[in-house]
Design a protein that fits this description.
mainly beta, Jelly Rolls, 2 domains, five-stranded mixed β-sheet, 21 strands, about 0% helix, elongated, disordered N terminus
Length: about 400
């Protein structure tokens, strides 16, 4: 990952690094089918704070491809008194220009609207803002620093119930949010002269203090596959996708991308992303078969989306894979690296999105480069007597 001065930071995490999240596809030839771990891994992960050097695994549900269920967090109690400014679309708070920042509390408002992305049945009170940009631009709409389980969605031009222009309930890439399950629409394209209605809402019946910002997007981070890069070759994921290519222990039957030993630095060019209304993600499991007494491997990932990467110990099969051996996560402008001295046996390099940010599989910005160095193979040497050695020179 990148440090404060822009340099790359190599991160080695403790062996106890948090529970794993969803894995998916990988490299090429033989997506090895193994019978010992055909159990779909579904678990509730733990949201872990990012420090300058990350000391724990990524956001909820590290190993799994399915988004974990929510757990309740403290929230305010709706009073449903109703207010004028921002109560509904006709009375929306007008945003005059970008950047825009505001704070407030939704508990005194009425539940006027709701959208599904993907959780249903919300009765939370909501507040509405309107914004008419002067020119076409991408905007970031954040509730990351809010203090309750938020939801945010946008209508373009008019109220279109059931068909919001954009919607987000939880964004797992919010940086050190005060509570879990805050919201962030990282990239919303708005067209000059059109009016957009931004609704700040909540999950279930939750309400509370919110911190809202609307700023221009940080533009994409293109990643190009080098000429000698090895293509992952997984079919593109999409809604309804079932990963039978290299979803690792999360596939049925389990399947990996097996990587051939090569002590020199090499690059695998892959793709990842989220699908099924941001409830599933594509995870890539790259299988290494280590034969040396100790193999020091450096793996780095650079991506066009917020990514996570980790080492998994597969020496006792899928049933015993419950945590990362080490893990690192970061944004699209970071190169994240891990270096580990690993004993012999089967190991996995795992790559996917960092949690469930809004990066759809069908988005064009879903590529990553995984570089690996030090993956050598050790061939056993037969013992020989001195007489045998002398005989070679007669």
């Amino acid at each position: 990952m990148t440090g404060e001065n822009g340099g790359n930071i190599e991160v080695n995490l403790p062996r106890e690094a948090a529970e794993l999240q969803p894995p998916s596809p990988a490299l090429s030839p033989r997506s090895a089918l193994r019978t010992q771990g055909e159990t779909l891994m579904r678990s509730i992960g733990i949201c872990v704070s990012l420090l300058l050097v990350i000391a724990a695994a990524a956001s909820a549900g590290v190993l799994h491809a399915q988004r974990p269920p929510k757990t309740a967090i403290p929230a305010g109690t709706p009073s449903y008194e109703g207010r004028v400014g921002g109560e509904d679309i006709p009375n929306a708070v007008v945003i005059a220009e970008s950047p825009f920042f505001d704070t407030g509390n939704t508990c005194g408002y009425i539940d006027d609207y709701d959208e599904v992305c993907p959780f249903t049945g919300s009765t939370s009170p909501d507040v509405v803002y309107s914004f008419t940009p002067e020119y076409d631009m991408c905007y970031s709409l954040s509730l990351c620093d809010s203090y309750y389980d938020t939801k945010i969605y946008v209508y373009e031009g008019e109220y279109t119930p059931g068909y919001p222009y954009e919607c987000n309930d939880d964004n797992d890439y919010c940086y050190e949010p005060p509570v879990m399950y805050t919201s962030w629409l990282r990239e919303v394209w708005m067209w000059g002269g059109e009016t957009y209605y931004i609704v700040i809402d909540g999950y279930g019946g939750d309400c509370g203090d919110y911190v809202f910002s609307l700023v221009e997007c940080v533009m994409h981070c293109p990643v190009e596959c080098p000429p000698d890069g090895i293509p992952e070759d997984e079919p593109p994921c999409q809604d309804g996708y079932v990963d039978e290519f290299n979803g690792g222990c999360g596939s049925i039957p389990v399947a990996f991308s097996e990587v051939e030993p090569n002590p020199e630095l090499f690059t695998i060019c892959g793709m990842s992303g989220n699908f099924d209304n941001n409830t599933m993600r594509d995870t890539d499991w790259y299988l290494l078969d280590l034969t040396c007494e100790l193999t020091t491997i450096t793996a780095c990932v650079e991506s066009e989306f917020p990514a996570g990467m980790g080492f998994l110990d597969l020496r006792e099969g899928c049933d015993n894979v419950t945590s990362f051996y080490s893990y690192v996560q970061g944004d699209c402008n970071q190169v994240m690296c891990l270096t580990e001295a690993l004993p012999p046996g089967e190991w996995v390099i795992w790559v996917s999105t960092n949690g469930w940010p809004d990066y759809d599989c069908e988005d064009e910005w879903n590529h990553y480069n995984l570089t690996v160095e030090g993956y050598e193979s050790c061939v056993p040497v037969e013992s020989a007597s001195w007489g045998t050695v002398k005989a070679l020179y007669r």
